[in-house]
Every structure is written in structure tokens, then in C-alpha cells.
Amino acid sequence: MTAPQVQAHVGGWLTLAGPTVDLCNPADTRETVAVLRSVETGVVADATARAAPASARWARTSPLARGEILRRAADHLVASGAEIAVAMTRETGKIIVESRAEVVRAADVLRFMAQSHRVDHGRTGPLPLENEIAWTVRMPLGTVAVITPWNFPLAIPAWKIAAALIHGNAVVFKPAELAPLSASALVHALLAGGLDPDLIALLPGDGAVIGPALVGSPDVAAVTFTGSTAVGRAIAADAAALGKRVQCEMGGRNAIIVMEDAELEPAMEAVLLAGFGTSGQRCTSASRVILQRGIAAQFTDALVHRVQALRVGPGLDEAVQVGPLVSAAQLRNVQQALSRAREEGAEMLCGGGVLGHGEFQHGHFMQPAVVRCAPDSWFTDHETFGPVVSVYEAADFDDAVRLNNVVPYGLSSSIYTRTLEHALRFVRETDTGMVHVNRPTVGAEAHLPFGGAKDSSFGPPELGAAAEFFTKHRTAHVRWGR
What pTM was estimated for this model as a whole? Predict the structure, then answer.
């Protein structure tokens, strides 16, 4: 079967210029899943120039009409869901059940954003004279650059793009190089829903080329980015220097705390889901587990046993629980981090090795790992982004919170406890943007803000707080009569 070609989509036209890159299935690199045609800076300039007048027309369009387009796009995603999920698994390696769930989540986000314009968008206020009144309205920004990662190649673009569109903006969209099929499916759904082609440009290719061109474009008013902390900081600095709005969701080194009074089986399931789901390649993955001393040995032994039993393999196999890492480079990064952890004296409790023989020989597979390391180590502070969980022992609640807060990231955290005081204090004393009690660290709800603190986020949160980023306030003062 010939691999599909993914290329720039600007103004309803497919752009054929630019070099091509073959993208391979992470589970079997002998299979080419897509041929990516990278765009060059001239195409980026054309896309941003087309978006400017389109965004002015779109800003005058009723939010009801905007929402109807998003609803139709959601219906199109659901109708094509089985095909999209398979393509997602083939390009990213994630297990098929996660890909199917992501299609559903993306459609749900589109539907939520479609009706989000019905909430209050401003307020009224008095002025000094009796024949005066003032009110505020939210206005679109213009054109927004959307730059997204490969680990959630449909859901994250959906919530950024839908939020930008419902609030009256045009979008220039730079997806991850490793996952262009999912990005293309989203753009196709929006166009099938009736969106003006000038309002959504798909710009696949090299982030080092396209990213600076988007951030530096005079036609781009704002940039929303999800990815690594290093890239996010660079984008934030460049955008701020140009006076542009910027929103960056970046890394995480999230922890689940398990107290002695916790229900241990739900806590164990949370660690397995949040630590090893998506092969540990989520910004909200629970890559640290902090155990109160009284249950630390028991829980660790049980965790090692459960992790050793996890089934690793290609994501299209319905029985597989942990798929491959997304690329050879990502696998190499995880292995290098584990090597440094060993040099620091970390104890490998299970797994961690590359799986390179038999059914695994053509993919980017590794054994899911559990590591015991010091809380003041480089490895503790480092976002591994793989199927690796490090365990720590805490003397009591205060010590557990201290260990939770010691890392430079602050995205998500969780505690398992039956003590109300500990639950309420944890919400107050943790320094993460999202806090869970008796729930895993992963997940996002469209109606609630999604964002972190410290090195995890820059700018306002996403999803439920979308209006704060994608619109600007305008205050009107009106006097009548004399």
C-alpha cells in the first residue's frame, strides 16, 4: 500500500513545494506510514497573509454560525473515527484503545467549544451620569499560530484550534513532524464542516524552520504552544520581544503520593495508568510515586510485580498495554537518562532495557521500568518521557508534600488518602496547577482550566480558560441625550 503524502494546506490548495521525509511506524520501522512534505518559509508567509483578511470576516460572523461549523466537524471526526484511530496508532505507536478514546475526546472538545460562546462574555457598569452606561465585550485577536506535539496529535490541536475559531480568530497550524496524519484529519474535518479554507492553514514540517517564521510573522497576533520546556521558553521569549501573546504548556515530573491510609488497589491502578499509559509520553504522566514509609515496601514490591506483567507490543494489538516509544531518538533519550540515573546510584527495580529481538526487533520498544533514586538527584528533576516510574519514601504527610514540590516542574499532582485533612491541605500546599485527590494525574476536562506552574507552563491556562487567551477586552462607554 502506498503511504499517503501529507503536505501544506493553504487557502484550500495543497502545496507541493518542499523536501519530503518518510515517516515510519514506531512499532515496525519497515513500514512507511506517511510521506511528509515540509513547507518552507515562503509558504508560511502566504498562509499568514491569507489569514489576515479571513480573520476580519470571521470576526463578524455570528458565534452561533461558528459553533455550527465546529459541531459538524465533530460529527465528521466521529464518522471517520475508526480510520483516524488506526492512522494515529501507526504514526505515534500509542495503543489503539487510547487512539480511539482520543478521537472521541477531540470530538467532545469541538462540541463543547461550539457552545462555549453562550456563556457570559462581558459585564456592564455604571458611569457618573444617569444617561451613561458602560459595558465590556470580548474581541478576537486576529490570527493565532498553533504549534502542537506528537503525543496527543488530535486532541491537543482540537482544543487549541476550536478555542481560537469559536472566539473569532483565524489559525495557522504547525503540527508535530511525527504525527501529520492526525493533524490532517482534523483540518479535513473542519473543512468538511464548512470552515473557510483561509481560516485554517496546515503547515507540516521542520519546527526549527516553521516555528520562528510563525512567531516572527507580523500577521500573527498570538502563539499557543505545547511541547518541551526548552522550546517553549524560546518561543515565549521571542514572542514577548515582539509584543505578542503567548501560551506555553510544557513539561512535567508529576507525582502520585500514596499515604498509609489509602485504598491501595485504586492507587496501584492509578500509578499503572498514569505512569505507563501512552508509554509514559504525556506531560501529565505520573513519573514519580511517593510512598509513606509504612506501606512503601509492600507497595513497591507489588508495583514491580504489576509492571513486569505489563504486555508490551505494537499498538494495533488489542491485548497490548504499552506500545513503542515514538521514535529512535526518544528511545535513545530515555536510555541515556537511565544510564545517568545508574551512574548516580539509582537502583533499577525492574525493566529499563531495550527490547530489540524477535517481534520487537524493528520497533522502538523497551521494558517498562521502576527505579529507586534519591530525591535530590538529576534524574528526579529530569522529565524522562518514557515508561519509567521512580519511587521515593516519605516519613509523613509533610515530607511527602516536600518531595512532591522539590522538582522544577509544576503541572499535575495526586494524593491517595482517606484523611480529609490531608486531602484539603494537599490542595493548598502542593505547587502544581492541577491537583487530584484519589484520582490519577492524567486527564483534562474541556470546561476546566488546564495548565501548570514553574517550568510546566507560561501564560494563561487552556480549555476552560480559553477566552482569557484567545480574546481581548474592549470597554464601551455610551451617553444618550443631554
Answer: 0.96
Residue 468 in grid coordinates: 482569557
Walking along the chain (482 residues) 10 residues at a time, the average pLDDT comes out as 85 75 97 93 92 95 95 98 98 98 98 84 87 93 98 97 97 97 97 97 94 96 96 96 96 98 98 98 98 98 98 98 98 98 97 95 98 97 97 98 98 98 98 98 91 94 89 94 81
**Distance (Å, whole) CA 220 – CA 226:** 17
Same domain? For 197 and 345 the reply is no
Would you please indicate which residues are annotated as catalytic (active-site) residues? 249, 283
Which residue from 302, 305, 270, 306 is spatially nearest to 288, judged by alpha carbons? 270
Task: Specify whether 87 is located in the same domain as 216.
Answer: yes
119-134: b (≥16 Cβ within 10 Å) or e: eebeeeeeeeeeeeee
Smallest CA-to-CA distance from 289 within 255, 265, 313 is with 255
Instruction: Tally the domains of the chain.
Output: 2
Tell whether 482 is covered by a domain: no
Shared domain for 60 and 118, answered yes or no, is: yes
Range of the domain at 61: 5-250+456-476
Shared-domain flag, residues 379 and 410? yes
Residue 214: all three cell numbers together: 510563525
Q: Contact 50/201 with Cβ under 8 angstroms?
A: yes
- Pair (113, 167) in one structural domain: yes
